[in-house]
Amino acid sequence: MTVPRVVAVLLAGGTGTRVGHETPKQLLEVGGRPIIVHALSVFERCEAVDEVVVMMTPSHLGHVQALVMQGGFTKVAGILPGGDTRTASTRRALAALEGDCLVLFHDAARPFVTERIITECVDALRGGYRAVTTAIDSADTIVTVRDGLMTGTLERSSLARCQTPQGFVRETLLAAYALADEDPDFAATDDASVVARYLPDEPIAVVSGDPRNRKITDALDLRIAEALAEGL
Q1: Quick one: pLDDT band at residue 230, thresholds 50, 70, 90?
Q2: Which one of 6, 142, 168, 198 has the fewest CB atoms closer than 10 angstroms to its CB?
């Protein structure tokens, strides 16, 4: 039986607005290297990954192509224009891939993903799960709020904060999005939640993440990433 290939998709369609830059945040430097290069380097090294596809802000495709050539990233099989939203970029990536494959979706703005996390996601898919997410325990108490008032608390031991990568058998995620297309109220911020909502009988494995695998969203995150890159 043919073992399906593993394709890592880096979602890099975001902008730098919330970090206070006109340049897309994934192209900003931390530790002397663009954020996206940090992430690319980990997927390039990881033996569990066969190919990498980058979904990039359309106006900066050439910039990423230059970085890939300069960095000698041999696993990069394509640099494609991303969509207006995260889910639009996911759909474009799924449409561009061919044949049976396992797909990992990773936020390019998470530069400190580890080979351990990537490998465990792939192992979960090869072990029989058709969907997997990365998550870390919630260190904070989570409360429910309505009209500016606290209305209750949630049991912290059963809560986790999602990270990426999230991985899928390609056909499973395609099936979930096909059902989402029939829902006029569809909205999602990640792909595992699409599977959870539209394929509720499909178990989703959870791989332990890492506090360093944080997403750079605003100016504070950028400063924290710089400190992490310096080993602080």
Answers
A1: confident
A2: 142
